[in-house]
Amino acid sequence: MSKMNLRIKIAVVLCLFSVITMVTASATEDQWDDDWDYVGEAMLYQGDTYSTRGYVVEVIDFDKNKGLVLLELKKDDMLLNRSVLNVSCDVFTYGETVGMKIYNDSDDVLSEDPTNWQNPRIHLEFYVWKEPGLSIDVSVSRVTYKPPDSDIYVTVKIKNTGEAEISDVELGIDPAGLEIKYGKLTHRFSSIKDDESETIDLIFRVPELLFNSSFTISANASGIDDKNMAYIAADSETLNVLPLCDLKINKITTNTSMDRDVRVSIEVMNTGIVDLNITFADVIPPNFELRQQLIPLDFEIDGKELAWKVNLAPHEDKNYYYYMEPLRPGVFTINPANAEWNIRGVNYSVSSNAPITAVDGAYIIFNRTAFPAQVKCGEYVTVSLSVVNTGNKAASVSISDVLPDGTSLVNGNTTLQTNLDANQTAAIEYIIRMEASGNITFPHSEIELVSKDYSRLQVSDIINIDVFSSEPAVTSTPDPQPTIVPVENDQPAQELPKFEIAFTTFLLILAYIIMRRG
User: Fold this and answer.
1) How confident is the model at residue 485 (pLDDT cuts 50, 70, 90)?
2) 272 Cβ partners below 8 Å, 6+ apart?
3) Which CATH number among 2.60.40.10, 2.170.190.11, 3.30.565.10, 3.40.50.300 corresponds to the domain 261-360?
């Protein structure tokens, strides 16, 4: 081959290379046109990542000798692409989804030769392909409606939340069975530009219902982009429609003390649109008694149960009240009041709230026991008296025990006087001698409460002691005898006669010895 031919071929190759270089440069300049959206930039070292739209770009390695960088593109931990790019200036796109541009940063002296350093790095710009987005918002003027209300106002807003136009948008609205008065349930839009929206207003009729019901109004939309990719969106709103008949019932009680009654108030109102023939029922809770002389005349009383009837017109309200006497202090949950009626063969019932009532005062529990319950005549019985205040107020208590006939006091005091605070206890014991046989019944104790206006007293049962003249015919395992405490009046204890015999014998023996020695 002649030198002239070789030169011609080299010139042709250089010309082709120049053309290719110009085309590549032109393509690079036009790479990020209006279809791409700039999302940000970053300076990345080896191992760094950058994410956008669910795509993750990671710097895997550098080739310092050749000035190259290895990048990986992933989505949902799945490897989509692995590319080797120039560290100084290069571009890369993955289809029409995500793109990157490596560039030199004039403010970073290392970017001109980024691999000629101990810790190389690159500067990247990130782009995403513009896509449309779709969102729907369903809103109602309020969430609860009553039969007097006539209209339900609903607004449906559909919006393009993306960066590109969306086409062939179809919207469908499901009214959940509500009757429409204004508007259409289906709509079609040829296109909606980015960041633009369409609003649809509708009016539905409030239905007349026998039962409380909920309605969920929903909307669904769909559209496509310029590559026929589909986009969908949905939203809903739930509203509540009250029935034709409804009753509001509220029970109110007051806090009080033991010296005052509790006022119970029952407020009722017909919140529906029809007349109601109502039967009310209430019950007096434990630890309270009904003040029957203060109840309304139309109340029927059966023990602790109350009942009355009334006819209420729409929006009519009434207030009923009665009084209860507290039997003990404490904090009590009061039973709810109930209402029943019938419309068109359907039974309805509504219950009120259950209010809390606090009652202040003292509550004294008095307990008296005797031990043992069976003795022989002449033996001893220990009587125990105890009082405890289970209320929340102090009370002064005076208790005097009256001894039964055929008994005598051996030791102790039969009177208990004390001032008891809340949850405080006091107790005494005394010992009596049973001097007559038979069934001995103890009289009631004499009890006085100084603060009796706001106090209550609970007393234990009456004591009975069986006293035998000799050993009982049927015996059980004997109970231990009570400990005898010496008393100041030197009254002899049960074992004293044996001591006198022994002492007399000792004196006789001593006299005999003295006489013999004399």
Assistant:
1) very low
2) 146, 147, 242, 243, 244, 245, 246, 247, 314
3) 2.60.40.10
